[in-house]
Amino acid sequence: MSITRPLGFLASASKAGLKPSGKPDVALIVRELIDDAGDRQGTAMAFTRNQLIGAPVVIGRELRRRTLAGDLSPPGVVLINAGNSNAATGDQGIADARRTCEVAAKLLARPTDAVIPSSTGVIGRLLPVQKIVDALPTLVNGLARGDGPDLATAQAIMTTDNVHKSAFRSLTIDGFAVQLGAIAKGAGMIAPRLDSASRAATPSATMLAFITTDAAISSEALQRALDLASDSSFNRITVDNHASCSDTVIAMSSGLATRASGTGGDDSGVLMRPLTPGSPGFVAFSAALAELCADLSHQIVRDGEGATRTFTVTVKGAPSDEDADRIAREVVNSPLVKCAVHGRDPNWGRVVTAAGNAGVPFDATRASLDIGPVAVFANGRPIPEALDNPALKIAVSADDVRFTLSLNSGGGSGWMTGCDLTTEYVRINADYTT
Amino acid sequence: MSITRPLGFLASASKAGLKPSGKPDVALIVRELIDDAGDRQGTAMAFTRNQLIGAPVVIGRELRRRTLAGDLSPPGVVLINAGNSNAATGDQGIADARRTCEVAAKLLARPTDAVIPSSTGVIGRLLPVQKIVDALPTLVNGLARGDGPDLATAQAIMTTDNVHKSAFRSLTIDGFAVQLGAIAKGAGMIAPRLDSASRAATPSATMLAFITTDAAISSEALQRALDLASDSSFNRITVDNHASCSDTVIAMSSGLATRASGTGGDDSGVLMRPLTPGSPGFVAFSAALAELCADLSHQIVRDGEGATRTFTVTVKGAPSDEDADRIAREVVNSPLVKCAVHGRDPNWGRVVTAAGNAGVPFDATRASLDIGPVAVFANGRPIPEALDNPALKIAVSADDVRFTLSLNSGGGSGWMTGCDLTTEYVRINADYTT
User: How confident is the model at residue B52 (pLDDT cuts 50, 70, 90)?
Assistant: First the structure.
């Protein structure tokens, strides 16, 4: 179980006929209504920073703005489709997305602005609204809790994914058993640079991720936790350095966590108090959320189109953290580096020259590079004997090849994880039909 | 003929044993000495802006600085090797490059700082100095003018190139027959962002290009013409968005242009006066140099590793020219766009989302995209009937596919040319031995 294991959530999936394959392609995630939810239920969202955004992102941002401004009860319904991203579709696209939300809301007896639309698939084609509308009664009637709906939902949102993605974490906070569940999709057009509602973000898929938790946490606090988590997870992966117009992460809290077993006394009916930013409970929750997001991110990059292995570039000693991230991003996106990783080739010259190409000034004569545990380049000079080290052969054959670049030019550090570039990647993307 | 067709230049090539294939791998280009050269002979250079630079670039930059400061007679000898880039080789690399220049200079009876070293090939391996030194007498003895040495030189500098590159232009300036010849190499690690000696450059291969002309033009004026030419040619091509540590363009003028035939009178012995920046002759020369460089650039991207076709992204109506260039660069480097071009797939959603990912703000609802002559997206809305237009099928099958993105957000324009991404690219770069 994933998204319906935390208490207070239902999910379902169905077929609307948007995928050429005829597989399930629409899904619904619904948070139960509770009385006097107050700050115990919250909804947080993060979206692509692409200048061109899909109609669902336009609507989602507006819902987020109103939620954080206190003008709207946190939306508790997510309506998702795969097979059509409803992006580059102009005003018609926005009207189409709104129409699907309206119908879903009516069936659920909720206001339209309780429904967040989310779409992935081909760009620039009008959304087949009627197909989705026709599928909605089945979706609503199918809402349930359990392994079945969780799996069906995770599968319905897939596009070029080979495998569905889900994650789960649990922890005890203030004596309450808090659970976090998540599903995600994404294999191509993956390089999320999610915006941040709580502060300015610096870091680019269609990546969709939906997170549920039964923790009691307000929209504002959940948004802060989500922004922090995204920066150490989604924003650090790339398949193709091509940020989508549809990247979306939505997290919802139900506030229904129950007393952890073994805490003594009859606590039935006692409700968890909302987590406040800065509190030990919030920090623990944020850490679990970050782990959950890192888990999903790793699943996405592992399933990157055509990928056979991943690699992580860690940069230390940069002028700043931002500089370290820029350098790591440049290296992890170099097709020459990606091909070398694919070929298990310790061609470290490609790594250091990619680093030098990030627009960040550093003193190359003080730079060093390790592959796994093996130093191949130190203080601007090659270590020729490294190429004969058996440990190097093992390091370049790892499932996740580790490059550590030390610049000795400051205290900044950062990292990015990418995947290798293969002939299969080219086949998938040269043949993928518009 | 190419580099020795302009009067006053000799070239030769030989085998030093640096290429595993055993093919020719060292070359020499030499400008003849003339008395009282003054401002009639000049040498201009442009180098990679990568933070990590090869030892020859370190030396070349210093020679350029001294030349432009008037502290050095313009260097008139270029010693080139392929098979080893002498980059990431520390102080030893610089000493090694100097040693080869010293020996060449002695054989040519010139000062050491008359010799510019230039290297391309594997990164992070010490230069086999003795092999090059052993080849130098043959190189010097072989110096000659004609088709033979021009072709041999163009071939000796190749690495992963399938074909050698050369170009030639001629024009009449002030009654003198001015000739420009050039050779170049480059197929991978191609995305030049050349520095500029005459001003700050904004726009990454190992791309090497060597240009000769018999025009009379000083180092300073030639540098200005070269910087202008580079910005409309080398800096606008990319194969893999991975700027090399070794990109180098060197232009040398001999000042030996002769009177054009049919200009009347006995002008033998009359020398062309140096071209001064701003003069009509300088403008004409600069235009010819820009054409020559564009010709070489096109040859390089056509021969991009694994490429079957090229594509050009033109951006109009951007906030500024720099913004337009950034957007064009983002699009032309997207692997999703490159694969679509390979697959002749009019998947324009990839183009507009790549554009939106360049970090340049624009109003997507005012953006339009044409592929060749066919509008596929206009004012933020798709043109569905375009997908059935036979002209679109022709446009995506062109040798150079043309994308024109109009943002209607300002007066800035720019363009970049790239090549498609193929399974052959992956094979070349996953198997290329360090």
Answer: very high
This prediction has a pTM of 0.89
Q: Please tell me the predicted confidence (pLDDT) of residue B311.
A: 98
Contact yes or no for A241 and B335 at CB 8 A: yes
User: Is a pLDDT exceeding 60 seen at residue A95?
Assistant: yes
Q: Give chain B's mean pLDDT.
A: 93
Task: Tally C-beta pairs within 8 A across A and B.
Answer: 243
Q: How confident is the model at residue A267 (pLDDT cuts 50, 70, 90)?
A: low
| Complex prediction ipTM | 0.86
Element (H, E) at A150: helix A147-156
Q: Which residues contact A148 (CB under 8 A, 6 or more apart)?
A: none
- In this structure, what is the dihedral angle of CA atoms A319, A324, A330, A336, given to the nearest 10 degrees? 100
Per-residue pLDDT reduced to its tens digit, A361-374: 999 999 999 999 99
Chain A partners of B421 at a C-beta cutoff of 8 Å?
335, 426, 429-430
Tokens of B297: 């650039």
Of A124, A377, A434, the CB nearest to B88: A377
Q: Which residues in chain B are contacts of A406 at CB distance < 8 A? A: none
Of A50, A90, A204, the CB nearest to B381: A90
Per-residue exposure over A142-177, b if at least 16 CB sit within 10 Å of its own CB, e if not: bbebeeebbbbbbbbbbbbbeebbbbbbbbbbbebb
Q: Which of A245, A384, A430 sits opposite B356 (nearest CB)?
A: A245
Does residue A199 carry a pLDDT above 60?
A: no
The structural domains of chain A, ordered by start, are: 9-302 (3.60.70.12), 310-431 (3.10.20.340)
A-chain residue closest to B241, CA distance = A334
